[in-house]
């Protein structure tokens, strides 16, 4: 199971707020092989789709995603 720290995540109100990403972050959502992450106003996590691969964690340049058992 992963947890997103929304204070660290740059995606807010449907856009990147750090100026680093253009119109998308190119991070966790692209790294996820199972469609468990989606950009809406915030990045939404769908636990039922997550396969616990951990690929989203190194994909986040802000270390906003952590994994727990
Ligand atoms: S752990 Fe894997 S399947 Fe789950 S959200 Fe992250 S990239 Fe997607
Ligand atoms: S990669 Fe990190 S900063 Fe980018 S949208 Fe995902 S959680 Fe937010």
Task: Characterise the protein shown here.
With 69 residues, the chain is α+β, with helices and mostly antiparallel strands. It has one domain (2-67): Alpha-Beta Plaits (2-Layer Sandwich), CATH 3.30.70. The chain has helices at 28-31, 56-59, and strands at 2-4, 11-12, 15-16, 37-39, 43-45, 65-67. The strands form three sheets. It has a two-stranded antiparallel sheet with strand order 1-6. It has a two-stranded antiparallel sheet with strand order 2-3. It is globular, with a radius of gyration of 11 Å. Bound molecules: iron/sulfur cluster (2 copies).
**At the third CATH level, what is the topology name?**
Alpha-Beta Plaits
Give the biggest sheet. 2 strands, antiparallel
Helix/strand/pairing class, anyone? alpha+beta
Low-confidence stretches: none
Beta-strand residue percentage: 15-25%
Percentage of residues assigned to helices: 10-25%
CATH architecture verdict: 2-Layer Sandwich
Give the domain tally. 1
What shape does the CA trace take? globular
How many beta strands in the DSSP annotation? 6
Which strand order does the major sheet show? 1-6
Order of helices and strands: EEEHEEHE
Number of helices: 2
CATH class: Alpha Beta
Bound molecules: iron/sulfur cluster
